[in-house]
Amino acid sequence: MQRWIKWTAGGLATAVVLVAATAMVGVQLGERKKARKIDVAVTPVAYVSDTQALQRGKYLFDSRGCAECHGADGSGREFANNHASVRLAGPDITAAGATARYQPVDWVRTIRHGVKPDGTPVMVMPSEDFNRLTDPDFAAIVAYVRSLPPKKA
Q1: CA angle 64–38–75, rounded 5-degree value
Q2: DSSP 89
Q3: Vertex 54: Cα angle to 147 and 70 (nearest 5)
Q4: How far apart are CA 88 and CA 82, in angstroms?
Q5: pLDDT at position 30 over 90
Q6: Structure pTM?
Q7: How far apart are CA 151 and CA 146, in angstroms?
């Protein structure tokens, strides 16, 4: 066999092994990051339910991107799907959805810090956009979300 064919075959084999190893390490690191536990000490923001807070909450929900991921009615929305490997969807955050058992501290931890009540990270949550909300604005968004009717089956 000619020398250049051996070198080319060896180079291709090495490249394939490197790509496979890189992919495997990337998947393992991603899985480890998804499974990590994060302890965030937060101060709860009290629930509100007055009409003015609900109106302000609806405005903030619509204008700050909440509806982009969770749908206009809060029942969840798929916003990326290439049908092969990537599917991103905002969960149902109505009273019957992912936030059904949330306490005030859970709302703060999830929205402002991107950490679920069980301590695992929320994979797609723009918490950096919400961690500077004033407490009254934060309470208004939570009030509005808590007022959304459950998703119909």
Answers
A1: 40
A2: E
A3: 55
A4: 9
A5: no
A6: 0.75
A7: 12
